[in-house]
Structure formats: structure tokens, C-alpha cells
Design a protein that fits this description.
The chain is an alpha+beta fold. The chain has 13 helices and 18 strands.
Amino acid sequence: MPPFRARRAPLPLLALLALVGLLATLLSAPSATARPDTTGPGKAAGATPSAAERALTRAQRVLDGSLRGDATLALRDLALRLDELDAGDRVAAQRVLARPTGGKDEDSYGNNPVSSRCSDVVCVHWVQSGPEATTAGYAQTTLDTATAVHRRYVAAGYKAPKPDAGKGGNSLPDIYIANIGDRRLYGYCTTDEKRPFKAPWDRYAYCVVDNDYQASEFPTNTPLENLQVTIAHEYFHAVQYAYDFAEDGWLLEATAAWVEDELYDSVDDNRQYLAASPLRQPRKSMDQFDPATGYHYGVWIFFRYLGERFPASQGGLPTIVRDIVRRADGSGSARKDQYSWQAVSSVLRARKTTPEKIFTAFSAANRRPVKTYSEGAGYRKAPLAGKVQLAKRQVTRQVRLSHLSSATYRVTPGRALKGPKWKLRVSLDMAPTYRGSQAVITLYLKNGTQRVTTVKLNKQGDGRKAVAFARGKVSWAEVTLANASGRFACWKQTYFSCQGVAKDDRLQQRVTFRAVK
């Protein structure tokens, strides 16, 4: 989970987290995705630490509380690179990845007697003495919550977490209760499965949650609410690992943040992530895993948009997200192992649309969240890239957009445009359409309604559209320019889809506004 949902630190720490996150990027290997480079150098006196060594350092520091960060993804990245470490560092890494019952450096149960309790689908483990202690009543609440969450996911058509070969006493998935709140960790999920890093990519997982969520450590929400959304989020990682534990980090965390609110709708804990999200930062590439801000958590709003745009459901959860997870399945039974944006694209095309159209519509819709989302009254709308008050002259604006980002300009009719025959002519000079260029015009009428019009572009990215612009009827028009490209050169060790370098970044997009009759 993020620099603040690993689980997350409270919102007052966001400014500090951004600074610490920048340092984290220098200390860690790219955690955005699926297939890491395994050719890093070995140790040598004075040598720069390898990616595996940096992953070990980061995981250790996140778990001991000296570095704010995403514990689940830090541990995942360490597990990915375990075989790259020398013998001594591998032992240290295995201690970091170990369960509280297995000689773990942090959250260890030590020699205290361990209690366990299981339902038919999941087990919970705890101690009643020592620094990690909790009560049997709290353990039962944890078990009841985890059991309910498990059943919701299976009823919705997701795989159950993989059996763990008896690691926790039987083959059921395990949740351990420990005092992790003293390091502002709400929970994390990882794997201690010892397999070479090669296909198939599915792994079993275990999770750790806090032992009380006391208000002095977690001032937002009640202890029960924090337990509920933590289990919903972290247990979804255990489900994801049954498909592909090496999947792109932004997809893993965005969908886990999304599902919290699907299961526990009244808690609204994931709204905190919208401060750094496509809703508030539309000029940022949506598939970026950003440890500095936790932006990838805020991308849950895209999956909310998909779920409300395509509302077909099973077991009370939208099927569209489940279908994306299935497309990204890298397990032995998988027919296809698509990376994140490939999976999103395939699922949208199966629904008779395109990812370019949906991303552009999403970008424009984020300017009016109250009209777009069922809970949109609680969301702040996306900011504008600029405003223009148009008289009879011509105005041009231009912007550079990277992949999966957008910019919206508002055009307001000036006082001179009083007659009923005035129109706004929008002329576009964008990058070629094969590079992702898309545009829509949203007309805001004085009667409170909005009309959305797609601007048809030719292959070169040029297009023109005229819409009503009489000052008596139109409040303003907004033109959303989108770079909806999903083209990548993959496995280049970046924070984006497929660890790829986008082929269509920083493209110049130009729009000209003119009032005509």
C-alpha cells in the first residue's frame, strides 16, 4: 500500500511523504511492474548497490518505520529479486519476507505462544502476550471480517488465494495480527513462496494487520472501519497474487484501493487518495507508479468510472475489473498473460469500445464529478489547463501531453457574442491519431445541462468542430485534449505499464478557438 497506505500514514504527513518519497526513488528498484531485469552487477568493494540490494534496503526500512513507503510493493519487489542477492543478503531478505512465526526481523512473535483460529476459508494467528499481543475477541473480529471478504471475492468470480502448502498449519490463506501501527503501517501482504523467478507468475500470500488500530496511531475512522478496509485492500492482493504477483504495481494498488469502497462503501477511506489522482492531476500519466505521492492509489477513480460506465456485476462487484484481472493472469492456467494496460484495452474492446475513447471520456467527465459518479458530490473536480474569454478574435493554446494524460480548456463567450447565431469553432492540430490523440467538447448550457461532442480527427490529428456559443444560452464550453496512447517499448525498468518507455510522450497538441456566425 502507499506511502500512506502501506497501509497509509495520516493525511497531515503528505507534504513530508512527498519529500521522503523522492529519496525513496533513489534508494529503491522500480516497483511498477512485472518482469524485472535480472542482469544486475554483483557486489564489489565500493560498487553501486544492485537493484536487488536496493530492494532489500527499501523493504527493511519500510518495515522498521525509518522510511515511509508501500510495504506490500516493497516486499513484492524484494521477492522478485531474491535470487539476485548473494548468500548473506538472501538470508537477510528471507527474514524480511518471513511470517511473524518464522524468525521475522519485524513483527516477530518470538517465543510467545501462538493462537490460531480458522473458518472454512481463512486462518488468523495472534499472540496474547509480548509486544505483538492482541485479544481473542479482536482476533475473532479479524477472522469474521476476512471470511466475509474472501466470500465476497469468490462470489464475484475471482480466484481464491493460492493454497500455501501448510505454511500456517494448513493450506488456507493466513492473516497474522501484530503491532504494526507503531510504524504507521495499517497492513501488508507478501509471499514467502520460494520459487525461481520465472513463469508461471502466481504465488501464495500471507497478510499482516494491526493489532488494535488505536486512535492515537490512526485518527481517521474507527478501529473496526480501519480493520475492514485494510483487510479488503490487502486480501485483494492475496487474490491478485493467485493470478500474477509480478503484475504492474499501479494496477495492483489502484484496484485494491478501488475494491475497499466496493465492499465497505460507507467508510470512504480511499477518498484521501484523490488528492493525487487523475481527478486532480490530469496532466500526469495515469499508469505511473509514484512512490513520492502515492498517485497510483488515486487511480482507483478510473476503475470506479469503469464500474459505473459498465455496471454489469456478479456477487455485487462490477465484472469489468474482474475481467481485467483475468486478462492479466500469469498463472499456469492462463491463456493470456497481458500486462496492465493491455488487459484494460482488451476488456474495453470486448465491450465494443476502445481504450482511447474511454480514457478521453473519463478525462472530460472528471470536470463534472457530481454528474459522473454516484458519490461525486464528495469529489473535487479536475483542474483546468487554462481559461479563455472569447470575443470575435481568434485564440490559440498549446500543451505537451504524455501518454494517458489530458488537459481541458474552458472558453467563455464574451459580451460581444449576444446574438443567437454565434458559434464556437474549435480547430485542432494534434499529434497523429495512431499516437493517441483524442478530443471532446463539453457544452455547459445555462439551463444546467451539458452536451458532450467528440471531435473527429483525421489521421494527421487535425479536426474542426463548431458548436453553439450564444451568450444567452451557453455558459461556457470546455475542450478536453487527450493523449490516450498505450504504446510502449516494454521491460525498460520504468514506473509505467510493462516497465515500459512510452512511445508517445510530450506530444505537442494545439487548439484554436474562434467565434463565428
